[in-house]
Amino acid sequence: MTPGQQSAATCNLCSSGKERRKAPPLWTALSRQSYAPVHTRQFLRPTTTEWFQLYLDLQDSGATLPADAAVEDSSATLEQQAVSTGRSAMSWTWTNQLQSLRDAVGSQDVVMLRPPSLAGAAAQNGLFKKATMYWSIAASSQNAAQAARLVNFLVNDPSAQAIQLLNRGVPSSAEAIEAMGEELTDTDHDVVDFLTAITPELAGAPAVQPMGTADSQNTFTRLLTDVRFGTTTPQEAAEATIAEVEGMVTD
After folding, report:
1. 251 CB contacts (<8 Å, ≥6 apart)?
2. Percentage of the chain with pLDDT > 90?
3. Is a pLDDT exceeding 70 seen at residue 6?
4. Of all residues in the chain, what percent are helix, strand and coil, respectively (each to 5)?
5. What is the 3-state secondary structure (H, E, C) of 121-148?
6. DSSP 12
């Protein structure tokens, strides 16, 4: 499989001049260990516990929304979310959603920021690039050579890039971006500039999820809600998370 366009990295979006400490996105704290080999999973427990505890500490300090408001916000439309309505200074999203958020806020002043790291170093903040899609050719294809030429055209040909623009993400090729010329919007340029600036700081994308774990993010979200409301402890949530995700893995 060949990556089509490079996706936006997870980033902080700030809708005002204020900065508030915010917990890392769902996979940041676990990005290097989420699907570790069985014999190293013992290291996941303290890491996962710390992740849940960080969210709880931030909530208790007033740096994030209270539990009931956070749950309500997670199911709200973008236009109704706290960051869009001025009830929150910052939020997490993907860079390819920047224009949608600017539209929801009603201002072009929404800016992208690097997430903070507990170590105080940008290279340790867990930021990563993710492909928005993969152009794939079936192993059983009777026209593999022709399919490869099509994929090459879609990924590398300047004329194709001039048509697609950033609809499928930001191309990894500088030549492809240049081919888009004046068709790029101001927000497109902001996204490209942000990704260009952070790329040297990135370590690598998290491991590909094993078969059967597509629903694992919901496990984190559900147990984080339990932690927020005090019905379970961070340590109990970590144990339950690891057990549930391991149980999802199929051969």
Report:
1. 211
2. 46
3. no
4. 50, 10, 40
5. CHHHCCCCCEECCEECCCCCCCCHHHHH
6. E
